[in-house]
Amino acid sequence: MVGALAALDSGCIYRVTETWAHRGASAYAPENTLPAFEEVVRLGLPGVEFDVQRSADGAIVCIHDETVNRTSNGFGRVVDLPLEELRRCDFSNGFPGRHGVKIPTLREALEVFQGTNVTVNIELKNGIELYPGMEDQVVRIVRDAGLLDQVVISSLNHYSIANLRGHRSEE
């Protein structure tokens, strides 16, 4: 993932291009997993994007797809599976030398980036499954992790973005 940032220097605007990790460093470790997030830090990348969905018992977990079918040895919709059942799946997704990789919660993922300068883009995957209240839950987890100044929350669901309005003013 490449992003362009505008910067102002002596009255001139120029663009700086940064390379961010998409779904963690997914070329080096299974996507949206702790090993992929740890690689971001190891590689010294300035930013990371990853996706979150909500499990049947309300845990916010890092996964792109609405199902576990593509990225794990399990089967089923994330929204229908409790965290304990999701944790029984292996999310190593065929990576050589990787096995027994568990789905991380958002809280666990954010712990990887505490004490770093990595900017974290959390994409709410709530366009197909709507997950009412997910925005508030994610903001609460980010706040508890002490990373409000380091996190950007995004979504392709414009209602979700509207629900996020006002959160910064509450801080």
What does this structure look like?
- This protein has 171 residues and is of the alpha/beta class.
- It has helices spanning 34-43, 83-88, 106-113, 134-145, 158-164, and strands spanning 2-9, 12-22, 47-54, 60-62, 119-124, 151-155.
- Strands 1, 2, 3, 4, 5 and 6 form a six-stranded mixed beta sheet that branches.
- It starts with a strand and ends in a 7-residue tail after the last helix.
- The mean pLDDT is 91.
Radius of gyration: 16 Å
Distance between the termini: 30 Å
Main sheet overview: 6 strands, mixed
The count of β-strands is 6
Q: How many helical stretches?
A: 5
> Which shape, going by the Cα principal axes?
globular
Write the element-wise H/E pattern from the N-terminal end onward. EEHEEHHEHEH
* Integer average pLDDT: 91
Strand content: 15-25%
Helix fraction?
25-40%
Uncertain residue ranges = none
Class from secondary-structure proportions: alpha/beta
